[in-house]
Amino acid sequence: MNTDLVVVGSGLYGLTVAERAANKLGLNVTIIDRRDHIGGNAYSEIDPETGIEVHKYGAHLFHTSNERVWEYVNRFTSFTNYVHRVYGVHKGEVFPLPINLGTINQFFRANLTPDQARALIQEQAGEFAGQDPQNLNDKGISLIGRPLYEAFIKHYTGKQWQTDPTNLPASIISRLPVRYTYDNRYFNDTYEGLPTDGYTAWLERMADNPRINVQLSTDFFDDSAEFSKKNVVGQVPVIYTGAVDRYFDYAEGDLKWRTIDFERETLPTGDFQGTSVVNYNDDDVPYTRIIEPRHFHPERDYATDKTIIMREFSRFAEKGDEPYYPVNTEEDRTKLLAYRDLAKGEKDVIFGGRLGTYKYLDMHMAIGAALSTFDNKIEPHFARGASLE
Ligand code: FAD
Ligand code: NA
Fold first, then answer.
1. CB 33 less than 6 A from any atom of ligand 1
2. Are residues 23 and 59 in the same domain?
3. Which ipTM did the prediction report?
4. Which residue numbers delimit the UDP-galactopyranose mutase C-terminal domain (predicted)?
5. Which terminus of the chain faces fewer neighbouring Cβ atoms within 10 Å, N or C?
6. Which residue is closest in CA terms to ligand 1's atom 36?
7. Residue-wise DSSP of 238-277
8. Ligand 2 geometric centre to CA of 128 (Å)
9. Is residue 156 within a helix (H) or strand (E), and if so which, with residue range?
10. Do residues 37 and 142 share a domain?
11. Does 152 share its domain with 60?
């Protein structure tokens, strides 16, 4: 077989491994992806009618505090100075999110100082004092008090899970951040921004090496494909970033995911909502939020008479849907442990990335994890013959 390493999946995990293996170790790498484009969920495309860059699999904002990841990604793209902020509509009024002093003072029509606001929220959160919250609803109230919880969290979470929060486990949320300043910058990370020339340019540069051979529209489980599971496992090391349950033919059962349906519309106005993301926190609208992608790149000369919006509807994924967020129930975790045991026994196959580990990973986490796997397993294997596990 004319390749040293097969990478299944061209998302940021797979691309990072392939890039390092080709550029640092000089290996010939084959990346396969069943989609007709590279980049996994970070992929975006330019809408031909408006010229607006649309994140096909949902809004992707790059952010990290990891110096190594920041240095690494800057080899392939520069980043704009975009700073992410989110607003939310409740009872016909727009509030800044995440909940901060501005949200609190607007909501209570007050002029509270940080200390006064902290004292108020503490008092309101005392409703279930001394009790162990049994569901997400009670947990939310015990974290930030009933008024703010019911306005900003309850229905939004209910829509995300298509389940009343009184029927959701308390474990879904461990904390609900409240900021006692007016800072409504969404991410707390040292670095954030959007790739200046777009996601696809960034992702394509990672694979831009004659030693990297990309085969699109190729499913690892299609036995007729040259680099299928049947043909490559046992012949050549494999980095597998597809779904772990699929790899083992669902032998331990299906791992559950949530998905999002995007309803996309082009509107005859230069600006629909004045910002990139507006959440809808009440249950009078069925969608969770509206994304207006032109606002991710205010520095670009987009058409001024048209805009694109995407409404997001959240639901449980069925077979054939895009798996986006792990549901991660007790049952899922038990199955995952069984799959991890199977994966360990699969010689010369490394399971990585979001689908391969059944774990939500932000882009910087996927890249960081891939760099660690490269350092700890792939390089030692090819440089010194160490086992890949
Ligand atoms: P993926 O990007 O999912 O790539 C896996 C690839 O494997 C896919 O291309 C898939 O087609 C391929 N594949 C699967 N099975 C097979 C098979 N059988 N044969 C061949 N190929 C296969 N991160 C952020 O940092 N900021 C954000 O704002 C952000 N927003 C997100 C919004 C959504 C809705 C989602 C789902 C994710 C978001 N992320 C965000 C996370 C980001 O997309 C991940 O970091 C990234 O998906 C992880 O990369 P990955 O390589 O592990 O997986
Ligand atoms: Na393995």
1. yes
2. yes
3. 0.98
4. 151-360
5. N
6. 324
7. EEE-S-HHHHTTTTT-PPPEEEEEEEEEEESSS-SSSSSE
8. 46
9. helix 154-161
10. no
11. no
| CA–CA gap between residue 241 and residue 247 (Å, rounded) | 10
Residue nearest (by alpha carbon) to ligand 1 atom 16: 242
Number of domains in the chain: 2
The three-class DSSP label of residue 5 is strand
Same domain flag for 246 and 119: no
Q: Domain residues for 203? A: 5-77+192-253+326-384
Round to whole Å and give the CA distance between 62 and 56: 15
Torsion of the alpha carbons at 92, 97, 101 and 106, rounded to the nearest 10: -10
Q: Is residue 182 part of a domain?
A: no
Quick one: pLDDT at residue 272?
Answer: 98
Residue 314, ligand 1, Cβ within 6 A = no
> Last residue of some domain: 123, 139, 172?
172
Protein residue with its CA nearest to atom 12 in ligand 1: 9
Residue 1 has pLDDT above 80, yes or no: no
> For residue 175, what pLDDT is reported?
86
Residue 224 lies in a domain: yes
pTM reported for the whole predicted model = 0.96
Please indicate whether residue 75 is annotated as part of the active site. no
What is residue 317's predicted lDDT score, i.e. its pLDDT?
95
pLDDT at 137 over 80: yes
Statement: residue 350 has pLDDT above 90 = yes
Query: What tens digit of pLDDT does each residue of 285-299 get?
Result: 999 999 999 999 999
Assess whether 20 and 168 both reside in one domain.
no
